[in-house]
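Translate sequence into structure tokens.
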Amino acid sequence: MEFGWTEEQDALRARLKAFLAANLPDDWETTASLSPGSQAVTDFSKVFCPKLAEEGLLASHWPREHGGNGATAWDHFVIGEVLWEAGEPRGPQYYNVNWIGPTILAYGSEEQKALHLSRMLKGDVIWCQGFSEPSGGSDLGGIRTKAEKTEEDGNRYLVNGQKIWTSYARLAEFCFLVAKTGPARRDVSVFLLPMDRPGITVRPIASVVGDGDLHEVFFDDVEVFEHERLGAEGKGWEVIRYSLDYERVGIPRYALALRTLNRAVAELQDEDCFVPEAELAAATALTACEAARMLVYETVDKRMRGRPDTGSASMARYAVVCAERAVADFVLDWTPHLFTSNDAPMVATHHKRAIAAGLAAGAAEIQLNLVARDVLGLGV
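Result follows.
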């Protein structure tokens, strides 16, 4: 693998940084520390994302025939690294361009593409993800939420059940919902469900991660129609695996981790406190970040070459979780005052998001199980 960037990619990075300098307000870092699902960040995303779209930088990696620029996945990751390091001003809309949009591109009907991709490209729509449940957590095979066809109308389902840890649900217009549509463990389907349907109840879950990020969602005889199903009935596992391969490496968390680590090291150096023990701890955290970055790049490289994933996304995801924790531990051990410093609001932002890293896109333990099965062939 070539580890350097091309001149064009370096130019893209510089162009995006200049765009951020011109379009992020002076108090942006304080706003970003609230969480991607907060009302303030969500409102800002609806101003920022249309501007990003005008520059051709919101969904540049999408095909030209669907509103993108036909750019490569590498261009998408250059953009993602810069935006995540800056505190992710796309807010909850990073879902759209990172994995929901590409999944609709791969499995959606022409009607679904026309409806949903156009909204995503405008940068004014919020989605949530209906995966985890109280009884199964990250075990999607154990979900109990059902979508059952009604006898009088074969084109209509009634959804009953509950989802939990649902990010952005309070503000979302649509839910990427997984529900059982048959008796077998893998008889699941994916639905693109409008969140204003009668029978949907959303309750926030208070957490250290931040306001607006976590919710319970209850479905009581909620109508969803056949034309809102993504892919064939009972074939949702293929759709889910495709989307998760994108989601697990879609957020370059190592970018903000590296920024946070550098900020903490600079603090120690300024105070003449960067002692050998701190140097060793910083080097360990830096190594974890670089390992995560390289494993993510390997996954992107496979995608670019059309090669099967074979577990690399799960390895990359677990490495990212380890990197996040290593940096958070370093800051807690050596510069804990930065968590409450008005001069370093992004340090607290990183810590909150590091907490979520081990749960989002499938818990870290689930990733290890997938590595054991798909990479080591242990048959777990």
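Note: The CA atoms of residues 30 and 268 lie 23 Å apart.
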